[in-house]
Design goal:
By secondary structure, the protein is mostly helical. It has one domain. About 75% of the residues lie in helices and about 0% in strands. Helix 1 packs across helix 7, helix 7 runs antiparallel to helix 8 and helix 8 runs antiparallel to helix 10. The protein is globular, with a radius of gyration of 20 Å.
Length: about 250
């Protein structure tokens, strides 16, 4: 791929210059810190809201509950942030005409797409790492010991799923010149993927099943491993990069 290193450096620099890395890291860190805090002080928060909870038993929050809750929140919020950031990665450059300027140089379209995939994915992996450190640290401080190994596995699986979301969004960003159209279709496709997890057999081999595997890991359960789903997800990431490249080659930049 001609010019990959140059384009990757440019894209990584863009993540810093546009504050995307700062914003993404801030979002995940906020939820990483606030989730155990909310669980720990939920009774006090309810009382401050004016609700009478006298006589209503509230079970003590656990470290497992905190880490599982954070993972679910990071998944939902992260998916939306992924789409918002990646939907204009290609479509925005095409509409502004900057893609033509970039590709007029001795660089390949494959390098152009792959550099964006790697740079945006790196931003989310960094944000997830920071958020996970905050969530685990505050969970241990406020709620007690937690399963570190399982949580690391859960975070890694979540990171793989986020990269899949980036690749999916880039495909539609290559199809449409309008960023909003690319974002809307991407969200619809990703939500549909979440919906079909309820279908027997099919639900166990799609990327969304990685989240349930992560929950099993953090709970210390041996069941629920979905290696086929992981393999399918990695394959779909590669397919997404290939499709985005192939689509751009057939379109008027």
């Amino acid at each position: 791929m001609n010019g990959f290193k140059t384009l990757l450096f440019k894209e990584l620099k863009e993540q810093f210059r546009t504050y995307r890395l700062l914003i993404v890291s801030g979002v995940f860190l906020f939820f990483g810190l606030s989730t155990p805090l909310m669980l720990k002080y939920l009774p006090e928060i309810i009382k401050l809201s004016g609700q009478d909870i006298t006589g209503i038993p509230l079970p003590a929050p656990t470290a497992l509950e905190s880490l599982t809750e954070y993972s679910g929140t990071a998944l939902q919020i992260g998916l939306l942030v992924v789409v918002l950031i990646a939907m204009g990665a290609i479509a925005g450059e095409r509409s502004r005409g900057t893609a033509v300027m970039t590709l007029s140089k001795p660089v390949g379209i494959g390098a152009f797409v792959t550099a964006k995939l790697v740079a945006i994915s790196s931003t989310f992996i960094a944000g997830l790492t920071l958020g996970a450190i905050g969530a685990y640290g505050y969970t241990v401080i406020l709620l007690g010991d937690a399963n570190l190994g399982g949580f690391i596995g859960q975070t890694l699986l979540l990171a793989v799923f986020m990269v899949f979301c980036v690749a999916t969004t880039l495909v539609f960003s290559a199809i449409f010149r309008n960023s909003l159209a690319a974002g809307g279709i991407s969200i619809a496709v990703l939500i549909t993927g979440a919906a079909i997890t309820q279908i027997p057999w099919v639900g166990r081999v799609i990327p969304n099943s990685l989240t349930s595997w992560g929950n099993h890991l953090v709970a210390g359960q041996s069941g629920g491993t979905e290696w086929l789903a992981l393999a399918v997800t990695v394959a779909l990431i590669g397919l997404g990069a290939y499709l985005a490249t192939a689509i751009l080659r057939r379109k008027e930049i």
